[in-house]
Each structure stands twice: as structure tokens, then as C-alpha cells.
Amino acid sequence: METKRIQSFISQNAIYIVLVLLIVAIAIYDPSFLGLNPLRDVLNQSSTRIIIALGVAFILITGGTDLSAGRIVGLTAVVSASMLQVTDYSRRFFPNLGEINFLLPIGLAILVGLIFGLINGVIVAKFKVPPFIATLGTMVAVYGVNSLYFDMDPNNSQPIGGLRDDFTKIFGTGSIGFGGVSIPNIVLIAIAVSILVWVIFNKTKLGKNMYAIGGNQQAAKVSGINVGKNLIYIYSIAGALYGLAGVIEAARTGGATNNYGNMYELDAIAACVVGGVSTTGGIGTVPGVVTGVLIFTVINYGLTFIGVSPYWQLIIKGSIIVAAVAFDMRKYAAKR
């Protein structure tokens, strides 16, 4: 009986155990990894990825996938950055644009992300195109739109820099002190978004419908759920989250190019899967997704911290992804 309880505990908390073991293993090699600065760096690097992964989680739980996430992040980073340069910057994207309230470009970037998410939702829900193909097409189209915008005169594909301090400090490099410990603003934003998404997942009709659609779409239809309408809402929310992530990425790095966000969607999907979001739909939690992102950040940052080759990092990441999917498929097969 005790053995079964232990096995059940390990099975239910496997990702948290993996995260703790990773931290402990790196700390044994170099105890300074447990300091405040490394922790701050890990959280900083995770923040944007958490927001993207939460957006992707919406789609995965419905049984779909989203390959356009990274390119939407890149487009919205360019859109927001292009309007938030200091007025005396020598290569302004819009030379005649005065200093505007930074909330306007941020709102526009989030709206752009929402619109492309809406397009994905309509293609999937109304035209019945498989999510993989629909979002693959959107991914390519968004990159084309971003590149055309980025290549406009007088910018001509030059990296966008010279962003305003009020924007970069609030949404990027700034922090708030709590009892002598400073917490980066983007970490607080990621926490706020995580709480909001948790509420949507667990306390709203949309969240319940999302799990029902992912569990069995035909059964959801029979039970009276408007699957198409809910999918459009879900893809739109995911797009808005990608837009917010693009804004934060521009502020965090102090600039943007049309290549921002490249392959971010694959990292987000991997983090979701490792965090317990089922590849077959219907299962997934916010804490799991956040933990999945932290695991990969700890691998990237922690192993670099102790001098492990990036190639070994890729091998470890790939092995974890395969193991997570294999474990998920075993659970799915056992239920059938």
C-alpha cells in the first residue's frame, strides 16, 4: 500500500521533482547557483517564455497546436518597438512621429496578436483546416507581413533600437523592491498573467468548455457546447498573449528585428508537454506549464552556469521532451 502511495505521489508530481533534482544537481557542482542573482536571472529569462507557453497551452488543451506563436511574437515586438523610439534617435522608424503614450503601441501590438489569433481560430473552426496546417500557414504569412513592415522606408530592414526608457524600464529592465529584494517587473507581469490564465482555466465557462473540447470534441458538441465559437475565443486569447510577449521581449532586449520569436513556439510546446499538457488534448494546468518553462530555463542557464557544452544541453532537452511525450502516451493508452 505504501509503495503504491509513493508511486502515485511521484507520478503526480514528477515535473516538480525533476525541477528540484536539476537545481540540486547544479547546486552540488556550484553552490553559488542558489544565490539570489542566478535565481533572478532564471526568472527573468523565463518570464516571456511563460506567457508564450500559456498561450500555446490554450491551443494544446483543445487538442490542437500553434506553430505561429513565435512569428506573432516577432511581429508584435517590431510593431511596438517601431513606435517607441526616442525622438532624437538617428534612425527612427517613423521620423515624424512625436512621443506618444506608450500604452497606445502596446495596445496596438496586443491587438495585432489577437487579430492573427482570431484568423487562426476562424481557419480552424469555420474552414475545418487542421490546426497544424492552419498555424503553419499563418506562421509563414506573419513572417512575410513582419518582413514587409520591417523593410519599409526609411528603416529598410535595420534593427530597431533607441527605445524609450519609460517603456524599457516598466516592461523590461525595471524592478520593484520588496524588503531589500528586487523583483523584475517582467516577473511580476508573468505572475499576473499566470494568475489570470489560471482563473480562465479553472473558474470560467470558457475554461470548462476548453477541456471538454480537448477531451472529446464530438461529445462536447452533443452536450451543447458551441465548439467553433469557443475555438475562436481560445485562439484569439492565445494571440493576445503572444502580442503581450512580443511587447515584453522588445522592452527586455531594448530593440527588435523581424527575426525575433523564431522557434519560440517549439520551446513553448516542449515546455507545455514536459509540464503535463497532454498531446492528445483535455489535460493541462498552469502550474505545470510554468514548471515546464522553468525546467528548460534551468537547463539552459544552469548548465551554462557550470560550463556544460551547449550540445549536451540540447541532448538533455531532447531526451526530456521524448520521455515526457512517451509518459503521456502511456497514460493515454492505459485509459483506453
Verbal overview:
By secondary structure, the chain is mostly helical. Helix content is about 70%, strand content about 0%. It has 14 helices and two strands. The protein has helices at about 1-10, 15-30, 35-60, 70-80, 105-125, 130-150, 165-175, 185-205, 205-215, 215-220, 225-255, 265-275, 285-305, 310-335, and strands at about 175-180, 180-185. A hairpin with a 2-residue loop joins strand 1 and strand 2. The chain is globular. It starts with a helix and ends with a helix.
Question: Main attributes?
Answer:
2 strands, single chain, two-stranded antiparallel sheet, 336 residues
Draw up the topology in text.
Blueprint: H1 2-12, H2 14-29, H3 36-61, H4 69-82, H5 103-126, H6 131-150, H7 165-173, E1 175-178, E2 181-184, H8 185-203, H9 205-215, H10 217-222, H11 227-253, H12 264-274, H13 286-305, H14 310-335
Antiparallel strand pairs: 1-2
Mean pLDDT: 93
Uncertain regions spanning at least 5 consecutive residues = none
Largest sheet: 2 strands, antiparallel
Shape: globular
Oligomer: single chain
SSE-based structural type: mainly alpha
- The first-to-last residue Cα distance is 25 Å
Record the strand order, biggest sheet: 1-2
Count of DSSP H/I helices: 14
Number of strands: 2
Give a nutshell description of this structure.
This protein has 336 residues and is mainly α. Helices cover 71% and strands 2% of the residues.
